[in-house]
Amino acid sequence: MSVRRVVPVVRSEAVRETRAFYGLLGFEQVMDLGWIATFASPTVPAAQVSVMASDLTAPVAPDMSVEVDDVDAVYAAVRESGAEIVHPLRDEEWGVRRFFVRDPAGRVVNVLSHR
């Protein structure tokens, strides 16, 4: 298993203003699903930040996203560890397979792979 990228998720009801702010820092918008937008550095594309008000298909909004090369293997390892699964493994219509797990500090981590 390998990690491809880690993206902090900023929760904001002021999505438009937050979007403008990260543009001032040099980020460019690379994804916008309406309820979540992701911004990346044009020179270091894996340097990213996402902004959302709430998650469209999950019961809670994550604090960060971790993209891995094999989400099924990570899901199996996390379940075996006894960690709390907050949102079950599922395929999403926007092309990712993901689940949420709570880390020991109480943060919700969205673990995903692109299909």
TrEMBL record:
<dbReference type="Pfam" id="PF00903">
    <property type="entry name" value="Glyoxalase"/>
</dbReference>
<dbReference type="InterPro" id="IPR029068">
    <property type="entry name" value="Glyas_Bleomycin-R_OHBP_Dase"/>
</dbReference>
<dbReference type="InterPro" id="IPR037523">
    <property type="entry name" value="VOC_core"/>
</dbReference>
<protein>
    <submittedName>
        <fullName>VOC family protein</fullName>
    </submittedName>
</protein>
<feature type="domain" description="VOC">
    <location>
        <begin position="2"/>
        <end position="114"/>
    </location>
</feature>
<dbReference type="InterPro" id="IPR004360">
    <property type="entry name" value="Glyas_Fos-R_dOase_dom"/>
</dbReference>
